[in-house]
Amino acid sequence: MNTRLKDTSGHSPIDPRILDEAAAWLMQLHASTVTDMERNAWEQWRLRSPQHRQAWERAEQLMNKMGGLPPALSMAALTHPGGNNRRAAIKKLALLMTALPASWAAWRVTPWEAWMAEYRTMVSEQREIELADGSQVRLNTATSIDVRFNAVQRLIVLHTGEILIQTAADNAVTPRPFQVLTAEGRLYALGTRFTVRQGEERSHVAVFDGAVAIHPKSGDSGVAQVLHAGNKTVFTAEAIEVSRPADDTDIAWTQGMLLADKMHLTDFTDELSRYRQGIVRCDPVLADLRISGAFPIRDTDRTLAMLQATYPVRIVYRTPYWVTLVPR
Fold first, then answer.
1. CATH for the stretch 120-250
2. CB-based contacts of 142: which residues, under 8 Å, 6+ apart?
3. Gyration radius (Cα) of the chain, Å
4. Stated pTM of the model
5. Taking every annotated instance into account, which residue ranges of this chain make up the domain FecR protein (predicted)?
6. H or E element: which one contains 29?
7. Contact at 8 Å (CB) between 92 and 109?
8. N or C: which end of the chain has fewer CB within 10 A?
9. 237, 219 in Cβ contact below 8 A?
10. Long-range Cβ contact pairs of 33-42 (< 8 A, separation 24 or more)
11. Where are the domains positioned within the chain?
C-alpha cells in the first residue's frame, strides 16, 4: 500500500519516497563534487510530476530557512553525517519538508550536537583514541562522541554512530565509574570490552569481556540489567530486550568487514549504507533474499560488485550517490 505522510503545513500530501528523493537531491546538489550530468538528472527528476515539483519547492523552503545560519555551517548540516547516518539525515530532511516551519527548531538540536562533538568520524571513516585514564575507544562510521572526565566520573556521551570501548583501571584516589550515555539511557562498565551503537530510538550493546549494567532513561530501578560477556541486547528509554548471544558479526567492523549470515538483503543494504555516501536501496522483490559472506566496508563498490557476481541481483547506479539493487 502506498502510504503518504500526513502534512500539517496546509499543503497536499506528498509520497514519502518522493520526499526522500528530494532530500537526497538537496544534499547532493550542495556537495562540492556535483557534476553537470547530475544537475541534468536532478532537473529531469524535478519535472517528472507535480508531486516532484512540489517536493522540490519544499526543499527550497528548507534551504531558505537554513539561510539564516552561517553558510559554511548550513552546508555542513547537509553534507556531514549528522544523525545516525546519512540515511537518517535524509529522513529528517524529508520529515521537515512535510511540516515547515514548525519542525525547523527540532532539526537544529541533535545534528549540531553531533557536529560540535569533541570526537567524530565521517561516513566510511574509523578512528581510535586513547582517553586520559588509558581506556581505548574506537569510533565506527558516522560517529560522534563527547568525553567528560572529572573528579567523580568518566563519561562518554554517544551522540551518533557506534563505538568499541576497552576500559582501563582507574588510578584516581577515589575510583570513578566508567559510563556511556546514549539517547535511551546510561551504561556502567564493569571492567569490560563492549560496543555501543546509537540507533533510531534504541541503543544496541554487545559485551565481549566483563559486564555492563544497563539503566534505561525512563525505566524504574527494576528495569536495570547486567549484561555479561558473550551477550548483546537492545534497549529503549523504557525497556530492555531479552539478551542474545554476541558473535563475530557484532565486531567485524573493527576489521573492516561486514559479516552476513543468511541476512535479508534489505537488512544488508541498510547496514552497507552506513558506510557509503548517498542512498543504497533494495527493490522490494529482493527484500527477503538471504545473503551470507564477508564483505569489505572500506570499498562499498567492491561489495556491490560481489553481490552482483554472487546473487541474482543487478546494481543500478543512478548517480555515484544513488544505488538501487534490482532483480537480474
1. 2.60.120.1440
2. 81, 84, 85, 86, 121, 122, 123, 160, 161, 274
3. 21
4. 0.69
5. 118-212
6. helix 16-29
7. no
8. N
9. yes
10. 38/319, 41/318, 41/319
11. 16-115, 120-250, 256-327
Tell whether the torsion through CA atoms of 77, 79, 85 and 89 is positive or negative.
positive
Cα separation, 267 vs 291, whole angstroms: 9
C-alpha cell at 191: 571492567
Q: What are phi and psi of 165, to 5 degrees?
A: -120, 135
**Distance (Å, whole) CA 120 – CA 101:** 29
- Cα distance between residue 271 and residue 257, in whole Å: 11
- How far apart CA 217 and CA 215 sit, in angstroms, is 6
Could you give the CA distance from residue 267 to residue 286 in angstroms, rounded to a whole number?
11
Fold (topology level) of 256-327:
Phage tail protein beta-alpha-beta fold (3.55.50)
Query: Residues in the chain, how many?
Result: 328
The ranges of the chain with pLDDT < 70 are 1-12, 30-33, 61-115, 220-222
How far does Cα 327 stand from its chain's mean position?
A: 27
- Could you give the CA distance from residue 135 to residue 211 in angstroms, rounded to a whole number? 16
Question: What digits encode the pLDDT tens for the residues 263-298?
Answer: 999 999 999 999 998 889 999 999 999 999 999 999
E strand spans, the chain: 119-120, 127-130, 136-139, 144-149, 154-166, 178-181, 185-198, 203-216, 225-228, 231-235, 244-245, 257-264, 279-282, 290-296, 313-319, 322-327
